[in-house]
Amino acid sequence: MRSENQSSVSEFLLLGLPIQPGQQGLFFSLFLGMYLTTVLGNLLIILLIRLDSRLHTPMYFLLSHLAFSDISLSSVTVPKMLMNMQTWQLSISYVGCISQLYFFILFGSLDNFLLAVMAYDRYVAICHPLHYTTIMQEGLCVLLVSGSWMVASVHALFHTLLLVRLSFCADITITHFFCDLAALLKLSCSDISLNMLVIFTEGGFIYLLLLCTILGSYIRIGTIILRVPSTKRLLKAFSTCGSHLFVVSLYYGTLAGVYFFSSSWDSKDIIASVMYTVVTPMLNPFIYSLRNRDIKQALEMCVNRVKL
């Protein structure tokens, strides 16, 4: 196969979702509705947290950053996918593809860091309730969030720089609906052994560390609760951690399905990708607010202000 170096590759072609031509309109409306729900729902969460002083706590401070990260993660991929479905313009420029890859890795990684920090916050709240305000001070929360942004940015930049050094073959068709790292590596004519090594060492170490932080926090929470079991304590722990635990299971379950248990990039892999780039960010506002009394009260107060 004829190869071209990266300087001569001006664009890639995104095949998009495996949808029949007659169903394009239906799926366009579906994904547009999901995207608008994601943006508006997460913006509402951020707005309520900013307006209501009762929500100025570490948990809601972290939740507001997760909501912003979810909006950004969806905005990196979904608008381009919708435009391709509507106009049938499947091309994306080389610079646009690399930029999409960088921001996708950035906000995808940031989601993971924030979920780990939120798990630690729940651990402190349940296992050390008397020292919660002393430990989770504003300075520590800002430090944890800032550190998450910095490490996620460096992580994304590292993998992006490793990719741009590669040469690409004449085939520039990406069998995906966005510029995913694994799909781009398959198009390269260069030796990608270094890229794969870094993915499984540096990337694997980071995600394993974050997963261990989450699991360790919940194992400790479970140990504390079961030490003196009571229905009231179990219900309180579930109301405090249930939403976060559900989001973690949904996110890491689909992520593992895509990157570790799939043998080829077929429709099953694309569906799993849709789950963690579209569905999970859309569900987060509902998961965190439907059974949250504080959020409901803040929403009622905001509605009453508008009426007055």
Q: Classify the beta-strand content into a percent band.
A: under 5%
Q: What is the SS-derived class?
A: mainly alpha
Distance between the termini: 69 Å
User: What is the string of helix and strand elements?
Assistant: EEHHEHHHEEHHHHH
Which spans have pLDDT < 50 for at least 5 consecutive residues?
Answer: 1-7
Query: From the alpha-carbon coordinates, what is the Rg to the nearest angstrom?
Result: 21 Å
Silhouette: globular
Task: Tell me the number of strands.
Answer: 5
Mean pLDDT: 84
Strand order of the largest sheet: 3-2-5
Percent in helix: over 70%
Output the number of helix runs.
10
Please give the largest β-sheet.
Answer: 3 strands, mixed
Q: How does this model look, in words?
A:
- Helices cover 75% and strands 4% of the residues.
- The strands form 2 sheets. Strands 3-2-5 form a 3-stranded mixed sheet.
- It has helices at 24-51, 58-87, 94-127, 132-135, 138-164, 181-186, 193-227, 231-259, 267-289, 293-307, and strands at residues 3-4, 11-14, 91-93, 168-169, 173-174.
- The radius of gyration is 21 Å and the shape is globular.
- The chain has 308 residues and is mainly alpha-helical.
- The protein contains 10 helices and 5 strands.
- The model is unreliable at 1-7 (pLDDT under 50).
- The protein starts with a strand and ends with a helix.
- Helix 2 packs antiparallel against helix 9, helix 3 runs antiparallel to helix 8 (231-259) and helix 8 (231-259) runs antiparallel to helix 9 (267-289).
